[in-house]
Amino acid sequence: MQKKVLLGMSGGIDSTAACLLLQEQGYDVVGLTMRVYDLPSQMVGDEPRCVAEAREMADRLGVPHYVADERTAFRQQVVAYFIDEYLHGRTPNPCVMCNQLFKFRILAEWADRLGCDHIATGHYVRALDGALYEGTDKSKDQSYFLWRLQPDVLRRCLFPLGEMTKDDARALLASRGFA
Fold first, then answer.
1. Which of 1, 37, 5 is nearest to 122 (CA)?
2. pLDDT single digits (tens) 50-70
3. How far is it, in rounded angstroms, from Cα 83 to Cα 67?
């Protein structure tokens, strides 16, 4: 029986390459895109461009795709944190807080709801036995943004791009017919 993995999908190079790699490794992939804001300049019909692009990639890759509408929670948890820190004269890092308290919590909740064994993203990092390591490509390493993830979450995580460079990811997509 295939292991099931929930992949955070943006529709971009990294999540699409991660999906291809996971499929080639035999995983049953399910995609999830978080709708966190709506900018008028980024809308395609009634949805943000990233949601439309993720849905298109999921369709092309033959994976089920879900959208989590997290606009209110994102404003309350991530944007409010950023504004509060800034107003108090501190330099906020919303990505660190978002990944720990928001993004990976939602991914885990959806993974549980959909019966997924693992969580995956297109981050350029490596995880082993609940510990986080730098990605191979030091110029794209994203471990700094994920350092606050707890070991129980990291044990569920797959980071297929951790051993790759961005150029490797682009080459993989080109070799599979993705422009």
1. 5
2. 899 999 999 999 999 999 999
3. 26
